[in-house]
Amino acid sequence: MKARIKWVENVCFMGESETGHAVILDGAPEAGGRNLGMRPMEMLLIGMGACTSFDVVTILNKARQPVTDCVAEITAERADSIPKVFTKIHVHFVVTGRQLSAVQVERAVKLSAEKYCSASIMLGKAAEVTHGFEIVEAAV
Description:
alpha+beta, 3 helices, single chain, OsmC family protein, 2 domains, three-stranded mixed sheet, N-terminal domain of TfIIb, 6 strands
C-alpha cells in the first residue's frame, strides 16, 4: 500500500492513495490554515471507523442478517500535552435492520475489534479502544 501527501500551501495538503483517490487536509485558521479539509487526526479516526464498519457489515451480511444501515459514532480523547496522541477511543455502532440478532451484531463487533480491523487493533496499542452497539428496527 502506498500513499502520497503533497503540500498545497500554508498547512494545507492533498493526500492521494495508490488507487487514485484524493482528499484535502488542512489546519485551523489559528494554525495558518483555511479550514478547507479535515485535520489529520480526524482522518485517522474516520479511517478506523470505516475499517471497523466494513468488517461489521461484511460479517453481518455473511451471517444473513438483514442490515439496512450501519453508523459508527466515534468519540475520542487526546492527551493534554504534545504529542497529543489518542488516549481513549469509543466506537458505538447503530445497526439498523429487520429482526437483527443481538448475538450476531455483538459477534460482528467483537470479531472486528479483536481479529479483523487492522486500524482499531493498531490504535489499541496506544489508546484504550472500546466498542458498543445498539440495534434499531427498520421501518416496514
